[in-house]
Amino acid sequence: MGASVRKNSGGGYYKRGMFLEPPEDLEALVAGLRYRVRDSTLLARDFTFPLGLDRATYLYQTPGGRYFAVYVAQGEKARLEPLSREEALELYLPMPRKFVPLEEAFPGLKFEPA
Q: How big is the CA angle at 77 (ends 62 and 55), to the nearest 5 degrees?
């Protein structure tokens, strides 16, 4: 059973299958910087129930080390938002599905002992 990418009635995109996913060709030019899903590393994912079919958030890191989130919702167009390192870390920590370990996603990060 293969997944297919289709345009939904709300003008957004979703991948048919278990979870909403951003389109691979999603990109944005913000303040002279190009953010592209296809060129970036997926760090973590979060979704709402039931079964992640309503909303999903994806956190990416660009090859240049910048961070961005992609928000996908059923019936809506996917939205890309650039994030600061601090905003990305705040989003990353509670995400239930991580694809890259914390130390690799945020190199040089130091934690103080409790």
A: 80
